[in-house]
Each structure stands twice: as structure tokens, then as C-alpha cells.
Automatic annotation (TrEMBL):
Its main location: membrane. It comes from Champsocephalus gunnari (Mackerel icefish). Residues 350-361 have a biased composition (Polar residues). This is G-protein coupled receptors family 1 profile domain-containing protein. Belongs to the chemokine-like receptor (CMKLR) family.
Amino acid sequence: MALSTIPPILNITTPSSPIVDTGAGTTVGALILSLVFLLGFPGNLFIIWSVLARARKHSVTTLLILNLAIADGSLMALTPFFVIYLIMKTWVFGNVMCKLLFYLCLVNMYASIQLIMLMSIYRLVAVLWPRHVTLITGRKTVIWVLAVVWVLVMLASVPAMIFRKVRIQNNSSVCEPVHDDNRDVALQYMLELVFGFLIPYTVIVVSYICILRRLRQTKFRRRIRSEKLILAIVLTFCLFWLPYHLVNMVQVTWALCPKGQVKETLNLIWHKSRAVTSAVAFISSCANPVLYFFAGKSYIRREGLAFMARLFEGTALDSATRKSRQNSQNSREKDKEADAVMLKEKDQDSSSNAKPVNNSK
């Protein structure tokens, strides 16, 4: 396929040189992805093993962390393909793999942020309404919610499979989005921006504002350490994905902007930044094992390889569930004691009232 055979309309929304042909940008991207793979892939596998083989109880938080590790680990498993792509500066895996790999990347990106959002919502309910948290902690309920999340993210990622194609550009094969017009560009990246960043992070920020306010007002202070761990996961994800979504904003603005100097400048910005910001976004998937390691290092001497599982059991807010059950059990015991006292007093009253009757006889 020669460059001249590409329909002219496609050149409207596609830069004149491939994204991987940016010199230092691709070199930095390849280095980042290599380090991310070496650290993140075995780290997430260890988390999955810890939950499945070492965790004594699969709580809601543990199941969410397991699914998050599966999403991150799957993303890490794809990084060697992109390292080769950045080093060779040409796509050698064919059109089907071009569509499939970028589709799976988007699926795991969506899944990660949606799972973190669910984690925040669950902790919000557990802190603000601990007596009602048992209503959403049933195993079937959690599995159904997780299944719905995975189905939704798979559907939301379909545009990546539709628009990605292998094309010949500057005598090299590139795997890039190919759009018929600028509206398709805006649609694809606005979907990523809204569903993958704005909505979940709005929910997360509101949830944690409410959680932290409640923690300062109540006796939940002893769980502030676990809140800090989950908050660190949220902030880390935001830190590494924010540049990627900023580039999405730039590309959407470029697509909707009329022709002129501004449009050319925006085109240059997103084109030069895409490879690096995408590589930086991958770091978030290897950051969680590092956070878990530092959070659970106090368990290492006592628990050995099971330290990660004990950390998850310790940070799970099922302690709130246990507390609510304890409170309800204590209240039932107090009610029983109160009933027993009332019955005893009633018996005493009836016996004392019965004595005059016997004397009269």
C-alpha cells in the first residue's frame, strides 16, 4: 500500500509523520515501558497470587484489588509489543493485532479507573452508613457488579478497535487511529476523557471529601491508615493518567478548531506528546504493587510471602461490617437483658400483688 493510495480525506485528521517518529520521545517511551514491564508484570502477578492463594477471606476490598491487579497485569503483558513498536518505529504485528492490542489497552485503562471508583464508593458507604454496608457485600452482588463493569468497559472500548488501522506512512507501517472526519476524532477522545477520567474522578473526589470529613468527626480515626493507602492509589492513578487526558483535550480541541496557526500548533503538541504521555500512563499499572509493598512492610517479618494478603485483609473495610454486626449483636444482647429484667420485675410485681389476695383468703 503506497502513501498516495490513502484517501485524501484521511489526511485531514492524520499528521504528516507517524507518532513513533519523534526521536527522543520514542526513546524515552521505550525506556519507560521497559522499566514498567520489569517492575509491574511480576508485581501484579504476585498480587493476584497473594489474593487467590494466601488471602483467608475474599472481602469486597480484596476482590476489587484482585480485579485491579488483573487489569494492570494484563496491561503490563502488552507492553513488550509497544516497546518493539517504539524501538523499530514501524508496526510489524499486522492489522488484527493493531486493533486488538489497542482495544485491550483501553479496556484495562477503563477497568482500572472504574474499579478505583467502585472502591471509593464502597468505602464511602462503609464509613458513612456502616450498618447498611452488609446489603452490598454479598458475594453474588459483588460478582454481578464486577461483571457489569467489565462488560461496560469492553463496550466503551469498541471505538479503539474500529478506528485503529495499519497504514503506510513515510515508508514505515504505523498503527494509528484513522478517522473519516474531525467529528470522529472528537467523539473517540471525548469518550475516553468523559468515561475514563471526568465521571469517575468526580465520583472519587466527592466520595473522599465525604470520607475524610467523616473520619475527622467520628471514632473511625484508627482506620485512617487504610484510607491513606486507597487515597494514594487514587492520586497515583490521577498523576500518571492526567498528562494522557490533557493530550486528549488538546487533540479534541485541534479537531474542532478551524484551520489556522492555532490548529497547526495544537496538532504539533498532541503529535509530539502522545508517545511519551501514553508510556507515562502505563506507570500507574506498576505503581500499585510498590504502594502495597511499602504499606505492608510491617507484615513481612511476621507473615513472609503472605504479607500482601494480610495487608489486604487489614485494609478491608469489612472491619466496619464486623463492627456493625458486633453492634447489632450487642444491641440484641442488651435487648435480651432488658427483656429479662422487665420479665423479672413483672414476676416480682405479680407475686407481690398476689400476696394480699392470699391473706384475704
